[in-house]
Structure formats: structure tokens, C-alpha cells
Amino acid sequence: MNSNKLIICISIICLACLSTSLFAFDALSSFSKAVSAVGGAAVKNTAEKTVATKPASLKAGVSSNRKVVYEGYTKDMLAIKKMISSGEVGQAIKLRQKGITDPNKLDLLANLELGLMALDAEDVTLAQASFSSAERSQVAKKERGTVSSFLSGLGSAGVSTISGNEELGEYPGVGFERVLMLNYKSIAYLLEGDRNAYNVTRRAIDLQNMEKEAFDERIREAKKEIAKEEKEQKEKGAELANVGFGSIIKNQYKGSNKEASKVASAFVNPFGFYVAGVVQELDSYEDRSLRDNARISYKKALELNPKSDVIKQAIKDIKKPAPTGRRLVHVIAGDGFAPEKKLLKFDLSLGFGPPTLIELPIYEAVDSQVYRIEAQTSTGKRWARLSEVADITALALRHQKEAGPLEQLRMMTTVIRNVIEGHAWNQAAQSAGVFGSLVNSVKSERDKMVHPDTRSWTTLPSKLMAARFYVPKSVSQIKISTYNRQGKRLNSKLVKIDKGSHNIVYARSLNKTLYTASSDKMWVKMR
Questions:
Q1: Which residues form a coiled coil (predicted)?
Q2: What residues have CB less than 8 Å from 33, skipping those under 6 apart?
Q3: How far are the Cα atoms of 69, 269, 400, 463 from residue 297, in angstroms, in the given order?
Q4: Under 8 Å between Cβ of 490 and 335
Q5: What domains are defined for the chain?
Q6: CA nearest neighbour of 21 among 153, 130, 188, 210
Q7: CA nearest neighbour of 180 among 390, 21, 425, 371
């Protein structure tokens, strides 16, 4: 770094110290606080000179030059995702670890990515360690009183607050991701033949309810903040309502509305109840009275996904006694990749001055070549066709749709920076005399650093699918096959299953690539 850039960076930090909220990009921070902070900085930099300003006349916002690009973390993960899709998951793990193999020394996001990749690589021990470390970090965060939340400036207010670059702070995770973290941890336990899968899935069910309540509260706070700021700025002569921030946000995200409408909210993931049903159904082989418990769990899962064929069939089968002389096989598969969190850029014209560049995070769905997944005999005869349990793509896009008020506040913050703060910076530069060029340089460098968070759990699948069926005790292997929409087989793999136990089989399909794993002996005895 040359000396000029060093001076500029130091100046950014020093100016931030004048008002710690000056550069914060917290969607729930008050718009009026931003104005006050800017005004305070301007007064200090103008040696107490009073300058009368006339509020700009705000008109309906007009967006143009829209583009969506890969930036930040999502862009960095493309190489790793390409490796996974090419069957090189072992190499992908090493690249993501960056030489650190102990999950306890890695952050939340690294452990989420590595835990899922480890399952794909049949390394259940690493998967369990990674998900456990990720869960502990979330518990510790809550105990510190810094419950992660969308756009929160708390907990990692240092560099991210000063610079406005959210990716420099600690990754908080998103509510539906934290639920999926426990879903995958329960899968790891099932593959180990460990009944602790039930305890984890119960935590996932409870967490989903808590996450929904917390998210709903943030949306209510955001709407109140928007109304409050529109009222306060109107009294100061700025008609923020004229801009139509809410309509602009809805228009920018409208392309994903159809997919988002497949679920009622981002917190209707039925996988927790489904795994509870799986565990209780296995338990019922030793205690038949538990079959009704399994039926209740499957029924609750069906309420969250009424179209799931596998859940419907489970409810139908569980009403009857388990067939004798046959083993139960559950297949759980993830297909494709979840939506990628990219950077949306567009120009916003407000009827005066140059357009304001708006940058927002945006989820975009990822296409998959896989149309059908089947569990078959070793000779290719179908045991069952997998059906959807949880639509992760729909959950992510629904979360984006419901988070509209938070993105509206983000856009309002950008406008206040560029319009009102920009005016204060200009006054500070004019008053700084010989140091005016330094002030302008500081503003320029700071603006370059302002950047929305594009981090997400990128290795998540688009969908979680499942099938359940009974096989004779003599069967020692099954085949998992994937097909495209035209019926062409993309891949197939034989999977060995324990002849002396009921079985869980895990699979991950990524176009022509297929990963599989089978469980250890289950905790329940064969009858």
C-alpha cells in the first residue's frame, strides 16, 4: 500500500471515530441518525461555520442500467462449486479449508460449507465435527447477546461499520440456513446409526419457530422505521414517500416471485418433522406404540409440504403394521445448488443531480439438469422415485421477498449517503482548504468499500428429496440413478447396505455427478 492510500485509510478510521454511526450500514439504524451524524461531521470540519442548505425536491425514483453480477464471497466460491460438480469434492474441501483442518479454528460459514461437502465425500466424522462447531458458534453468539440478524451492525462493528463493507464482519447466517444446519447435522447422525438424530431434529423444529418470530419482529421494526423516517424527513422538507422506495424494491425482485410463492414463508421447512418421523418409525420396530408418534410427525411435515408424495406414502404405510421379513430403507438426497447470492446494481434517478448507484444483494436460482432421481434394484428395477421434502430454492427466494422492507432501508441509507452526506463531505472539503483534496480522497475510497454482503451457504442443494421402501433381508445393495427431463440417465451408482439392519442412504446429485453414502448399523434391532 502506498503512502497516500495509507493516509486515506487512517483518515477513514479517524473520521469514523467522530461519529461511529457515520459509516454504519445497518438497515434498522435511524435515517435521522445518519443525517445527524453527517451534520455533526460537517460542523466539526467547517470550523463551526454555519451553512444554510435547502432540501432537495425528491421525485419518483426511476431505476435504470440494471445488472446482476458475481461479487465477493459468491464469486470466490465458484471455483469450489465447480470442483464439487465435477466430482472433485475432496479437492474442494482442501481448497475451502485453506490449510486449517480443525473445525474449531474455522468460522461459521466455513464449517457450514465443509460440513456439507464432507457428507458428499462420505466423511461423516468431519461433517459431524463441522456442524457441531457451527452450532456451538451460534449458541455462543446468542449468549454474548449478539443474536445474528439481517444487516445487523452489532457484534462485528469494527471494520464493517467503518467501511460499510458487510463482508468484512462476522457472518451472522440467515434464519433458514441455521435451521438447515441442524437438518444436515441430523442426517449425519442418521448415517452414523445414532438416535441422537432425533434430539437434533427437535432442536431444528424449535429453532425454526424462534427464527420466524425473530424475523417477523425485524420486519415490523423495519416498517415502523420507514414510516418514522418518512414523517421526520417530511417535516424537514424532504418527501421520501415520493421516491417510492418500496415499489422499486418489489420491481427489482419480481423475477423470483413465482418461485418464492411455492412456499408460504421462509420458515416452512418440513424436513425437521420428516426426520422426526424417520426416527420414530425406526423406533417402532422395537416399540409398536411409537408408530402413531411417527404418523403425527409425518403429518406435521405434510402440513408444511402438502404435495410431497413421499410424506403421503409414509403416513399411509405407518397406519399399518410394519411388514415382517423386510427391511426399511430411507433415501435422502440433495439435488443441485441453492440460489446464488449475487450483487444487484442499478442507477436511481431522483429528479435532480446525477443518478445514485444502488447495490443490493439478490438471490438467483441455479438450474439443474436432474429431473428425476430413482432408487432401484441392482439390475435397474425401480424401488421408488424420490419426491421433494424441502424446496430450499423457494425458501431462499421467499426470504428475499419477505425481507423487502429491510432492503428498502438499505436503499434509503444509500440515498442519504449520496445526497445529504455527499453535501456534507463537499462542505468539509471546501472548508478544509489545503487539506480539501485529502477529504475528497477519503470519501472516494470509503465509497469504493461500501458493499452489501453476498455471503451465503453456497453449497446447499436446491431441494431435499426422499424415498422410503421395504427390501427383502437378502438385499445387500441398491442403485441410485438420476435422469434429465428427456429421460436420459445422467448417472447411477450402486450403494452397499447393511443386510443386518434397516438403512439410511444419502445422495447428492449435481447434473452428471452423483455422490452417495450409506449408514452404519441402526440403533434398532431387526425383527
A1: 205-239
A2: 21
A3: 42, 13, 29, 20
A4: no
A5: 61-143+171-518 (1.25.40.10)
A6: 153
A7: 390
Query: Quick one: 99 exposed, middle or buried, by C-beta within 10 A (0-12, 13-18, 19+)?
Result: exposed
Q: From the CB of residue 252, how many other CB atoms can be counted at a distance below 10 Å?
A: 19
Per-residue pLDDT of the chain (527 residues; tens, 9 = 90+): 455 544 444 444 444 443 333 333 344 433 344 434 434 444 444 444 444 445 556 667 788 899 999 999 999 999 999 999 999 999 999 999 999 999 999 999 999 999 999 999 999 999 999 999 999 988 766 655 433 343 343 333 333 433 455 677 788 889 999 999 999 999 999 999 999 999 999 999 999 999 999 999 999 999 998 898 888 878 877 777 888 889 999 999 999 999 999 999 999 999 999 999 999 999 999 999 899 999 999 999 999 999 999 999 999 999 999 998 899 999 999 999 999 999 999 998 877 777 888 899 999 999 999 999 999 999 999 999 999 999 999 999 999 999 999 999 888 877 776 765 555 545 555 555 554 554 455 445 445 446 788 999 999 999 999 999 999 999 999 999 999 999 999 999 999 999 999 999 999 999 999 999 999 999 998 87
Instruction: Give the residues across from 375 on adjacent strands.
Output: 384, 480
| CA–CA separation, 405 and 27 (whole Å) | 9
DSSP 210-265: HHHHHHHHHHHHHHHHHHHHHHHHHHTT--GGGT-HHHHHHHHHGGGHHHHTTSSS
Give the whole-angstrom CA distance, residue 116 versus residue 112. 6
| Bridge partners (DSSP) listed for residue 373 | 482
Task: List the grid coordinates of 106.
Answer: 474455522
For residue 493, with 0-12 CB atoms within 10 Å meaning exposed, 13-18 middle and 19 or more buried, which class applies?
A: middle
CB 286 within 8 A of CB 272: no
Cα(65)–Cα(347) distance, integer angstroms: 6
Report the alpha-carbon distance of residue 326 to residue 306 in Å, rounded: 28
Task: Write the DSSP symbol of residue 525.
Answer: P
12's CB contacts (< 8 A; 6+ apart) are: 23, 162, 163, 442, 445, 446, 449
